[in-house]
Amino acid sequence: MLTRRAFSIALTAAAAPAATGRLRVGCQMNAYKDPADLAELEGLIVRIRDAGYAGFETNVRNVRWDVEACRAAIRRGGIAFIGPHTNMNLGLAGLREAAARTAALGGERIVVSGAQAELDGAKLKDKAAFLNEAGEYCRRRHLVLIYHNHKWEFDSGAAEMEGLIRHTRPEFVSFLMDVGHAHLAGVDPAPVLAECARARELGCTAVIVDDGWQTLDGARGYRFAGDWRPERMGDMRAFADGVHALGMRLLLWYAVPLIGYGTEAFRRFEHCLLRRDERLACGIADPRYPEVRAFLAELYERQVRDWGLDGVKLDFIDCIQPVEGMPLGAGDGRDIGDLDEAVDVLMKEVVGRLRAVRPDILVEFRQGYIGPLMRSFGNLFRAGDCPYDAAANRARTIAVRMLAGGSATHADMLMWSPRDQPEVAARQLLAVLFAVPQVSVLIERLTAPQRAMLSFWLGWWREHRATLLDGALTPLEPESGCPLVEAHGDGERITAVYADRVVRDAGAVPRRWWLANATAGGDLVLALARPLGRRRLLVRDCRGAVVVDGQVELSAGAHRLAIPSSGLALLEA
Predict the structure, then answer these.
(1) pLDDT at residue 453, as a whole number
(2) Band (182; pLDDT cuts 50, 70, 90)
(3) Which of 223, 236, 469, 499 has its CA at a distance of 20 to 30 angstroms from the CA of residue 56?
(4) Domain final residue pick, 366, 394, 417
């Protein structure tokens, strides 16, 4: 039999089951619509049993079933309840409660993981002492406490893992060695950087890493927002260096006031909350407390400096709202009485410190909390969340453009199905022609027609971005979601048509008139108040292939131009 130390060092040898044992394969089961629905639970148990699994484990948040009914369902299914998995942030009281329910349900083990500890300091010993105490309690309940490693325990020559093994008692704490966790969790930056390289080839110049980089937890909510450690990304500085080597800039997402129940920050600032949000599993920090403002400003400044970040995406600022029952005025640790004033002071301190580190820092805000004042703090304004909704993305980007002045307007993230035809996928991009597109699909997995479409339209957008972003913008029929939008620039006019509308030649027509057919139809109708004379007509499909290249005589009146769906036409004098 291998000792725990030998098991941690000789991982490949430990991977083989003992000759006298039988390898049991279990299933991690988290895909519940409703964890309290025992009928759904029983159906899932039958399905994983029929798939050949010997048992199942699940997140500790799901272990809230009716004990007798659940035990009966597991018994009828003929498989084992291996136990729940959780995080040390649950605390000893939370672990004891989970252990009691697990034992009552007939579980065998509790799997727990923990945040990175200081290798030579008190935190490592505190972590081991926590595991020993929790493991002793579990043993009294006839359960086995198992520690589940992540990447950091094996950094620096497995120093933290060695320390945990040295300071924990083998009768109380066992170890689950997750040798593939780094790859499966995506902490290996190589595949992400490879995808960044593909995006760079298409002309993308920045990478925004959104929610998820700060935790390995895959559940909904923000239980682990607030400490802002790169659990999923690993070495953030190395990742940033890789992005910069591609000629791209890197921005990280932060949920400014959210402090998750499972973080060290929550225990530190639990007395500085405006309110709690049980649905999101977090508290909303109150910036009237100076320690809250100092914590956030110092954190962003340090990470931008140490990781070499080019920008930050500061989210959820609109959650800082007055609530019934909150303490009013200064006092009890609050040095500012007015909440709006406190937000203003917070943003001035944050942005001031960031600009001291990087004068050209990029700061993105979301549509729900932008306006003239926020322009003094941020320089990127993004449309509100509207995934896979081209119409909403169009209306929102246009609305932001009308308020943003000289600040950049960003679209919400673009996505489409791998099964979409390129003409359908292109309409997601065409919807935001007059903003900076944020592409949020895996380029590696695009079909060849989709990739050709993306390459063509991004390339054309880059060539004409001066007109699209800085030209005179005219959105027509805003009450109908802007079904026709135009921009006028130096010697060109760009018209995007999103619905069955007639395009009219309002004012003088410049030498180049671009017409983007962002509809599902195959033509557009022009109504000319005056003749344009003979013009070159160049028509391309959504992938950039030339369909027509010839001459057309444009007299006053109506003209129907055959332009493929998601295609582009140029009328050139």
Answers:
(1) 97
(2) very low
(3) 223
(4) 366
